[in-house]
Amino acid sequence: MPFVVIIMGSKSDWKVMQECIAILKKFEIPFEVHISSAHRTPERTKEIVLTSEKRGAAVFIGAAGMAAHLAGAIAAHTLKPVIAVPLAGGVLDGLDALLSSVQMPQAVPVATMSVGKAGAINAAFFTAQILSLLPQYPNLSQLLTKERQERAHQLEKDTQSIRNEI
């Protein structure tokens, strides 16, 4: 079964990336988690990517803050989809990570999500959308549709709740 590989730049990224993992679990998408740095352990990053790809990895998610070259380092070693989750940190509070993630050279694309929690959640949803194209995930499109409908319904309930307070 094709699976997802999440690589974080450090353990401090774990709290935010748990949001991504919660969505993957909800959709019953298999995943594995690694910590590796584009700068401190580039060979480890490369080995994780190559080994995971041989074992059937279908999507890679790279989460890092500050210089945030991790997703780009992952993309350098695979043709599978790579999703970047830039994380807040340092004096620029994630802007540096966002810019590092989106500034990729031609022909080495990385799909970059927003900074932080929203980006982690959207990385999981985007991963699910990608995997829904594979025959091994025949029900994923229906689950994604249901999730969107539930979220839309929740907005309607929230609207009514606020109106009741007025």
From TrEMBL:
Pathway: Purine metabolism; IMP biosynthesis via de novo pathway; 5-amino-1-(5-phospho-D-ribosyl)imidazole-4-carboxylate from 5-amino-1-(5-phospho-D-ribosyl)imidazole (N5-CAIR route): step 2/2. It catalyses: 5-carboxyamino-1-(5-phospho-D-ribosyl)imidazole + H(+) = 5-amino-1-(5-phospho-D-ribosyl)imidazole-4-carboxylate. Residues 2-155 form the PurE domain. GO terms for molecular function: 5-(carboxyamino)imidazole ribonucleotide mutase activity; lyase activity. Its EC number is 5.4.99.18. InterPro entries: PurE_ClassI (IPR033747), PurE_dom (IPR000031), PurE_prokaryotes (IPR024694). Belongs to the AIR carboxylase family. Class I subfamily. One of its GO terms (biological process) is 'de novo' IMP biosynthetic process. Keywords: Isomerase, Lyase, Purine biosynthesis. Coiled coil: none annotated. This is N5-carboxyaminoimidazole ribonucleotide mutase. Catalyzes the conversion of N5-carboxyaminoimidazole ribonucleotide (N5-CAIR) to 4-carboxy-5-aminoimidazole ribonucleotide (CAIR). It comes from Helicobacter trogontum. Substrate binds at S10, D13, R40.
